TrEMBL record:
Occurrences of domain Thioredoxin (ranges): 38-201
Official protein name in the record: Photosynthetic protein synthase I
Family matches, as Pfam families: SCO1-SenC (PF02630)
Source species, domain of life: Bacteria
Record key words, sorted: Copper, Signal
Transmembrane segments annotated in the record for this chain: none
Family as reported in the entry's similarity comment: Belongs to the SCO1/2 family.
Native organism taxonomy: Bacteria, Pseudomonadati, Pseudomonadota, Betaproteobacteria, Burkholderiales
PANTHER family, alphabetized: ELECTRON TRANSPORT PROTIN SCO1/SENC FAMILY MEMBER, LINALOOL DEHYDRATASE_ISOMERASE DOMAIN-CONTAINING PROTEIN
Coiled-coil blocks: none
This protein's record includes keyword Signal: yes
Amino acid sequence: MHTPRTIPQTRRTFLMSSLALALIACNKAALKFNSIDITGADYCRDFKLNDSDGKQRQLADFKGRYILVFFGFTQCPDICPTALARAAAVKQKLGKDGDQLQVIFISIDPERDTADLMRAYTQNFDPSFIGLRGTAEQTKQVADEFKVFYAKVATGSSYTMDHSTLSYLFDTTGKIRLAMRHEHSADQFASDIRQLMQHAS
């Protein structure tokens, strides 16, 4: 009588591990982002800043949601309103999944961006958007952590702010995934976020 051959345990374990690695490789290969994939970066690790109610916020507060972070200031003439209007459009394009996206606007101008002004500014684009601010020292610490450039530029009797324009996307575990380019459209942003949602483990 013929007895079926069995695969030794060690070989079976090796085959299963190889298959798992192959599936992971296929999943990674399938992800073709418009944005810059910075998964595993040793920066953008966290922030600790106050919201408009004076409550300190950090990444862990938003676990279970995708987080889109942008640095700017409320008196910004074009870049910041464009970024936030695009973020609002992205939420709409994601449909019912838009509720999984939390948009956070971090002020680089705490001297003028009061808590009330931040609340009014962010909620003008979407009621769910959150504005965060800190002291000048806290602002610099967070900007350095995110490798964000900003500088005060005199304009007559007042000033404006020069600053970086990337948006940063975190996954539901609070890990940084993408640096999203300002020149990209809401459709491109939404496409990248959908990919992460579909490939979430």
